[in-house]
Amino acid sequence: MRLAFVALLLLTPAAVFAQAAPPADESAGAPVRGSIVEDRAARKLLEAGDARLEAGESAKAIEVWKSVIERYPRSRLRFEAHLRLGNYFLQRERVYDRARVHFEAAASEENNSDEQRAEATLKLGICLYEVRNFGKSFQIMREVVEKFPVSPQVNEAYYYIGLGHFQLGHYSRAIQALEKVGTTLGDDSAQGEKLEAGKRLFVRIEDADLAVLEPSQSVQVTCKADSGDEEVVECFPGLVFGSVPTRLGKPVKGNGTLEIHGGDSVVVTYTDEHRADKKVKTPVLKKVRVVGTAIAAITDGAFSETVNGVVLGKSVNLRVIDADGDVSDAADAVQAVVRVFRLKSEEELEAEAIARVKGNPAAPPPAAAPTDGNRSDEPEIERWKEVDSVKVTLKETRPTAIVSDRPAVGQVEASAPAGPKGEPADDGTLHTGVFHASVPLVKTDQINPADDILQALPSDEVRLTYLDAVRMREGTKQVQAVARCLEGNIGGVRVTKAEISDQELKIQTQLRTADALTQIGNRYKEFGLQDKANDKYTLALTVCEEVADEAVKLRGSLLEQLYVQFSNIYFAMDKLDLAAAMCQRLQSEFPNSGFVDEALLKLADVARKQNDLERAIGVYSRLVAMPQSLLRGEAQFGIAECYETMAAKAMGEPAAQLRDRAFQEFKKVYDQFPESGRVGEAVARMANYYYIQKDYARAIDTFETVLNNQPDAKFLDVILFNYGRCLFRMDRKAEAQRRFEQLLSEFPESPLAVDAKKISEALNKSSK
Length: 768
Known about the structure:
Blueprint: E1 2-5, H1 32-54, H2 58-71, H3 77-93, H4 96-106, H5 114-130, H6 134-147, H7 153-168, H8 171-178, E2 194-196, E3 201-206, E4 219-225, E5 230-235, E6 241-244, E7 246-248, E8 258-260, E9 265-274, E10 280-291, E11 295-299, E12 309-311, E13 315-321, E14 333-343, H9 346-358, E15 384-396, E16 434-443, E17 454-456, E18 461-468, E19 477-486, H10 503-526, H11 530-554, H12 556-572, H13 576-589, H14 596-609, H15 613-624, H16 632-649, H17 652-672, H18 679-692, H19 696-709, H20 716-729, H21 733-746, H22 753-767
Parallel strand pairs: 2-10, 7-8, 12-19, 16-17
Antiparallel strand pairs: 1-3, 3-6, 4-5, 4-9, 9-10, 11-13, 13-16, 14-15, 14-18, 15-16, 18-19
């Protein structure tokens, strides 16, 4: 028996703004100087695109990033441009086909940065997950795990594998994948047992004695913090999971929340009633260290919103959020450094480059380039130089509403009203983990390093640097916030009336609302709540119908998206004729649409559901003939399934011929579309063909191929069942029994589990 903790992290995709070092010489005879010039120009364009995006000029930002790829095809910074474009289309526009193109480019073998390739490969898998191409998504996510085993993206890959299996109803495999989330921590895997302040503490108990618990019974675990708070957590049968929320605050026992301080440890105690060594009521302890993940920001005067620029002649307002700094009931303090950096002149950069080429030992040392595969053998010349710095003390305070970053990690304010179960009000304590300070910023080129004032000029950068000494990963990390020095006034604009006047934006909003309602309906449908699902589908239809007339007038991509949304809703409602009509309309009015292949696939699926198999084969064949489509493997698999269905309905010689044809079509999936997410299923169907033909040896070889190479294939329970049957037919009964037992342990919810249990018990009796 052992006690374990699970930290569940919600990973939000974030834009990748990695800074790449200059590339090495990429073509024979090309001068190194040309490479440096290209990288410098490409980086300036990337920064210009970032500035456009921050200013709300998305279209201009996209143009600038694309120009990096077009104008500097040799520069390794083109991969950063691809990542920026991919993230934009994935996160903001949710146009997954366009995002996928850029992620594929960034994930190519030409990119020497493993960090960027891991990020791009993961995002490519997310795009496929979002369009519900789970088979291909599984394959891409497994590539992340295999090719980049120490990258932080591995945890997110397991997370999406688990979600995909959950969507498909494979709950055992979903649990297996989700249990691996948080188990891979790259180079920082020796982090030990830690709890981030403000996050929920999850407890899992592994004790064979608990298997006898009834569903209504629970196991109690005690969590006690160094702060003095103590809470009882109830763990429920199944996985024997329990959890308790945590926050920074003054201890209040029994209120259902574990109040903690920075630097605390939490001791979790479980009483093992019966041990294998015959001892009873033995306490089992687990100690968890409380840590905080720091965030640094340069903010407006109200310390609420982050800013990218600071005005010369005014104060620089600083904010650090770190639970580790809240160590007492009083207002605590943390230390940080604020520096001013100025761009070096072209003459300074040239002098450093020349000095380095000549091997001048007096040349200034280059800044450490990012640790990735993109940097060349020579480190990059740092373009910025430090001109002033001030050490600051930030005081813990009660924050105003924080808009741009996450909220405080938990607080008990002196002015707070009485809390639940007797939580004290106005007790004079302060527990927020939010620290503020201000530093004057003056416009001058006369630097006085001894004062507590920052001296700067326009276009300089102010950088707040805070050392996060205790965090979830091992080691320390410098957390930094950057703002550009400006002249004039950047006061905020007050919004007195919010009104969407752009008709296209209204339609896009409605279409996204309809899509969300459809997805909710699909979840209800999966859980058998058909009435609730129909309510959501009907509401989604109503939302689409409200904007249909305007979309027809505007046409273009909005009308295209409207047709797609209508077809999705009708297909979910099993109104197959209407779904087919919408797919045909999309195909006729938008023949070059990126959604045409999906429409064809859906049209063929509709024909299959209506038992019009010949028509379905024809539509699938059209999709297979589209060389650029990523759904060709799906279509080929559909053709094979149609022939398999026809064989099941036929008799005699025609049935045998159709089975042979189905086998050949499944083999095409394996031979011609090895990247398809349907390969595992196709190979499994081929194995079933061998079983029917009583070619058990070849069937076993095929089953082994699926189990070893396709861990996410559908119907693995069927594969294991038939694998056991083949072994039984070959009189390998012990091996057969192991396969049936594997089915029972990995797929207890399978409809084949009952038969597998009977066969396993019979084999067990016969072996005695």
